[in-house]
Each structure stands twice: as structure tokens, then as C-alpha cells.
Give the backbone structure.
Amino acid sequence: MNVTLLDYGVGNTASVRRAFERLGAVVDFTGEPERVARARRIVLPGVGAFAPARARLAETGLEEALRRAVASGARLLGLCLGFQLLFESSEEFGTTPGLGLVPGRVRAFPSGVRSPHVGWNALRRPEGREPRLLSGVPEGSYVYFVHSFRPEGVPSEAVAAWTDHGGPFPSAVESGEVWGCQFHPEKSSAVGRLVLRRFLAREGA
């Protein structure tokens, strides 16, 4: 399976690329909008601040390319900062519009909750559902997090997993073919590899 990994000047791309290559995927690391628009599996990575990353997507034409790809049925996976960019807005350093591909807004953890949230924490599936993203992942599996902001106001039908840190927050989403993980699957051992395999799977796309 071919995977298009977005190159837009935001970190953690090398480790994500290696994780997919270890699963046998052919990775196209590109910042060319036309290649992104034609892709069928797209990964939006990222670490760092929301606003500069959001501006970079707009300036490079990658935002429009992503929208075209998603409209054509491509599967998109947002990771860490890329996950947060999927939502309608972020309140990091003021309010910045997101891509709006998934309803919800990104906010800081409440006062009194340890931030950043760093380390291993458990995934809890939505009651009565097994999202494709987590198919085969045992309930309560631990994955690795590094983040200071989390989404809220996400419709229950779009939540693929919850995690508890100062209260439950959506740690993964699945809205049609738009998927996302706040955790780092590339750093989450066997569970992370399973999540990436589910993203690569051909069914439903």
C-alpha cells in the first residue's frame, strides 16, 4: 500500500515514515499539492504550535489538496498536532481556525491538570461500537501521549476512543475516512502498529 506523508515543515515525520515502512508501506514524503490531491492514503503529522502549522498548510496549497483528496474518498490520518488540525478551531495562543473536517474545538487541559500530558495512557472504546481505526485493539490498551491541548465538543459518533487525563477526552476520531489520533502510534509498540495497519487496510475506502 502507498502512503502519502505530508511534508510541510512540521516535525516527527522521520519516525512516522519509518513506522509505515516497517509495515511494508511505500511512503511518498511530499509537499506537492497535486500529488497529495491524487493520494488515497494521506498522513498529516506534526508536533509544535497549531497556528504556524495551520498557516503553512494554507500557504503551500496543501489545505486545498487535502480537501480535494478527502472529497474524492481518500483516507486521511491526523497524528498529534495533525490530529488537532482536523478540528474547527484551537485556542492555543488565541483562537485559530482549523481545517474543520471534524466538529470540535481544541482547548488546553483545565487548570490543575498536569500538562503536558506525557507518557502511557489507556484507550477506551465508545460503548457499543468498534471503530475501524481500533478494530482488534484490546480495550484498555496503552499508547503514548505528548500534548498540552485536547479536543472537546466532538460528536459522540465521531469519537473512536476516549482517554482519561483530568477527565475523559477524545484521543482518537473517525469521521468517514477522516481519522485521527492524539497519541503517537509510531511510539506505541504493538498497539500503535495495529492502528497503522488498520489505516492501511483497504476495506471501506
